[in-house]
Amino acid sequence: MIVTSAVRHAAAGTTALLLVLPVPAASASSVTSAPALGVGAALAEPTPPARQYVDPALLDRTGTQVRVLPGAPAAPSVSALSWVVADASTGEVLAARDAHRKLPPASTLKTLFALTALPRHEPSEQHTVADSELTGIGDGSSLVGVKEGYTYRVSDLWNGVFLSSGNDAVHVLAAMNGGWDSMTRQMQEKARSLGARDTHVVSPDGYDAPGQVSSAYDLALFGRAGLQDPEFTRYCSTRYADFPAGAWSFGIANTNRLLTGADGVAHYPGLIGIKNGYTSGAGNTLVSAARRGDRTLVVSVMNPQSGGGFAVYEEARELLDWGFRAAGRVRPVGSLLPERAKAPETGGTRAVSVAHGGNPVGTDDAEARAGAAPGRETGHGAAPSGISAGLPLALVGSACAAALALWGRRRRAARRTD
Q1: Which residue of the set 107, 215, 288, 300 is catalytic?
Q2: 3-class DSSP state for residue 411?
Q3: Is the dihedral of CA 334, 335, 338, 340 positive or negative?
Q4: Domain that holds residue 189
């Protein structure tokens, strides 16, 4: 149905017609640039960009997936079983290797734990630890030194999680949020709500457990989501902190060597965090993010097969360096954003301007001119442009005539009452 209305402008003595046309409910998206990041800052949640369709099945393939343009540097050859390089603002995956391969995550799973539990309590809230909250910690776990009967601020416990990867701090925070089993379910639900389909949570602290897996894709997804929370960003980028021990405190250092530059691993310029991990079953794992200029990248690396215990940092360094050099010179092979749903066949209405030629609002002009790139599915046909593609000209004329007749009747009525 076409709705028409005539609006009289008394001062100008003119009448303007507004055509309200039925359009699909789905609207165009735009890219919002992220602000500069520092300690305590966070990556603003970007509006999903108006981007080319990328077949998500590309990331299901084995081996390295990258779509280089002329002049792009070759993707590095690293030994990790699985890795992902993504733009943290747009969510575009620039390159990946076996992105959805399910592997033990070790303490990088604490990123999902933080996404789930961190918003539940204020940093200044205090909690006295009960003995029951420290039971069930796995043998050989990394600990920050939480003690029964001591009172801690919530911020102290989160420093213990992010800096020392303390499983004792995780157990206490889990107890504060419904208990171990409840936290496991909450984390699983959070993973699904973010679009992480490879993660199965058994032990919220990342300790090896039968059936517990994640993927480089999911870990990059968790890292990107964390950067949108200022508290998460502040904790994961903190290098050193004091941890209370009753009447005194002791210093703790972040075990992410790319952040601190410890143990012979050079600090990576612009590094924000995020979380490292190690277990005998998972090997070394790492989720990192770094900012250079106006671009922030997130990289996940799972289980390097050579180079020793610190190889995970050097391989992440290589991938970050490549990502910054390759940005703008590769086509994405996937996205960390949820898959866009198909637009419904019918929807609401909105006012649209009538223009001849060009593309309808929301299409990518460059894409429309160039057509679909090789190897890419477009997902749907081109949208019609201009009013002639959506409405017969006769109906437009009828609408205008009806509006003018209505205006005329109102003028005559106004004259009779003046």
Answers
A1: 107
A2: helix
A3: negative
A4: 56-335
Query: Is the pLDDT score of 134 beyond 80?
Result: yes
Tell me if residue 165 is catalytic: yes
Q: Which percentage of the chain shows pLDDT scores above 90? A: 67
Same domain flag for 190 and 315: yes
Choosing from 82, 89, 110, 190, the catalytic residue is 110
- The residue from 335, 365, 391 where one domain ends is 335
110 noted as active-site residue? yes
- Tell me whether residue 342 is one of the annotated catalytic residues: no
pLDDT bucket at 404, cuts 50 / 70 / 90: low
CATH number at 74 reads 3.40.710.10
Torsion-angle region of 232 (φ positive above 0: left; ψ -120 to 50: alpha; else: beta): alpha
77-86, 138-147, 367-376: segment of lowest average pLDDT: 367-376
Q: Work out how many domains the chain is built from and give that number.
A: 2
Q: Are 333 and 96 in contact (CB under 8 A)?
A: yes
Checking if the pLDDT of 157 tops 50, the result is yes
In a domain, 264, yes or no: yes
Where does a domain end: 335, 357, 375? 335
Looking at the fold, whether 261 and 404 belong to one and the same domain comes out as no
408 within domain boundaries: yes
Residues 154 and 249 in one domain: yes
Q: How confident is the model at residue 403 (pLDDT cuts 50, 70, 90)?
A: low
Domain-located, residue 177: yes
Task: Please identify which of the residues 142, 165, 203, 288 carries the catalytic annotation.
Answer: 165
CA 230/CA 232 separation, integer angstroms = 6
Q: How far is CA 392 from CA 150, 345, 348, 395, in A?
A: 76, 19, 20, 6
